[in-house]
Specification:
- With about 80 residues, this protein is of the alpha+beta class.
- It is about 20% helix and about 30% strand.
Length: about 80
């Protein structure tokens, strides 16, 4: 499970290790034995950047170097 919260200054992304494990292989229908697993929570480091600043920098770079922008209006 993953939670993304852009309003947070730190820990914008939290990755939760959750799932279901099968205890034994079933011999027939309805014989599944499951257990729920809850593990670690990981919050990777994300550099604090302003999205508009990144977009403007990319735009200027494309204009100055005659590059094709990522969002050029065409869909491949």
């Amino acid at each position: 499970m993953l939670i993304y919260d852009d309003t947070q200054n730190d820990e914008k992304i939290k990755i939760f290790d959750k799932g279901v494990d099968i205890l034994k292989d079933p011999e027939g229908f309805g014989e599944y034995q499951l257990t729920y697993r809850t593990g670690d929570i990981v919050s990777p480091f994300l550099e604090a950047t302003e999205p508009l600043r990144v977009e403007i920098k990319h735009f200027f770079d494309c204009v100055e170097n005659n590059l094709k922008p990522v969002s050029d209006g065409y869909s491949d």
